[in-house]
Write a structure and sequence with these properties.
2 domains; elongated; 288 residues; mainly alpha; MetI-like fold; 0% strand; 76% helix; 12 helices
């Protein structure tokens, strides 16, 4: 990912030195251009540029934003907590609510809970998140006045976190339900029923761990979606997270910001994959 991040960004049709000169109102002359190229190692061979850039990234030296003039690491450090609060908070709520909803749907297939989970799944996959966000802003913020979607406090995070949570809930509840029903067709489940155990207890005691394994694996895919979903939500609600910072930096060809964002996204997915691997190994000792 570091190689791709470096090559793709450096191949963009723009000169970062000239962009920075125009953004910072510096004199456009040979001395200024040469000084910036030397400072950013752009006067060296490509492989040398990559090695120096990667070494600086590991040390926390992510370069300086052309657009703001501040270190990229400091910009990300200031904005990352908000982005993580939206992404991780929404995913966590989605997982917690998906378990009881999926269990109720599996307990009575075709019942009310099953219908709710099906409507959520179809609706959240059919309606773009920005359309749903605009509708909720109008309904909850304008018509009903239950919340202030653009407040300057934690209330502004209610809808963003809720949108991520609903998207995760819609998918994860159906995955959990399907795996519970799959467990219900296994011989061990029928044996439990034959011993006099009720269907509810048998589903929870013998099907929950089986379904939880699939639920944890499905979180990996939702973690990837949360990256793009968070970017859309931050723009929609005007939240100063790293995704909004990225979108604002694309037009300016802010090289160091783009490279850092790709790397942060790769680190996020690597961390999620590692966490899922640990959890699945704990749930299924055969993997160990």
């Amino acid at each position: 990912m570091s190689v791709l991040a470096f090559l793709v960004v450096t191949a963009m049709p723009a000169d970062p030195v000239r962009i920075a000169i125009y953004a910072w109102n510096l004199p456009l002359n040979d001395d200024t251009v040469a000084a910036l190229r030397s400072q950013w190692n752009l006067d060296r061979p490509l492989i040398d540029q990559y090695i120096r850039w990667l070494g600086g990234f590991v040390r926390g030296e992510w370069g300086t934003s052309f657009r703001t003039g501040y270190p990229v690491f400091a910009e990300f450090a200031a904005r990352l907590p908000l982005t993580l609060a939206i992404g991780i908070g929404g995913l966590a709520i989605g997982v917690v609510v998906a378990i009881p909803l999926g269990f109720a749907a599996a307990l009575r297939p075709g019942g009310f809970a099953d219908g709710v989970s099906r409507v959520l799944s179809v609706g959240m996959q059919s309606v773009p998140v920005f359309c749903l966000g605009l509708a909720l802003i109008w309904l909850l913020g304008v018509e009903l006045r239950w919340i202030q979607p653009f407040a300057a406090d934690a209330e502004a995070l209610v809808l963003p976190v809720g949108l991520i949570a609903f998207r995760a809930l819609a998918t994860l509840s159906r995955v959990y339900r399907a795996e519970l029903l799959e467990a219900g067709s296994q011989p061990f489940f029928r044996a439990a029923l034959a011993k006099g155990v009720g269907r509810r207890e048998a589903l929870w005691r013998h099907g929950h761990r089986h379904a939880l394994y699939a639920l944890v694996a499905a979180v990996r895919a939702e973690a990837g979606w949360a990256i793009g979903g968070t970017a859309t939500i931050e723009i929609l609600f005007g939240l100063p997270g790293i995704s909004q910072f990225l979108v604002q930096s694309i037009a300016a060809r802010d090289y160091f910001v783009l490279q850092a964002y790709i790397m942060v996204g790769a680190i996020w997915m690597t961390a999620m994959n590692a966490a899922v691997g640990v959890l699945t190994a704990h749930l299924d000792p055969r993997i160990r």
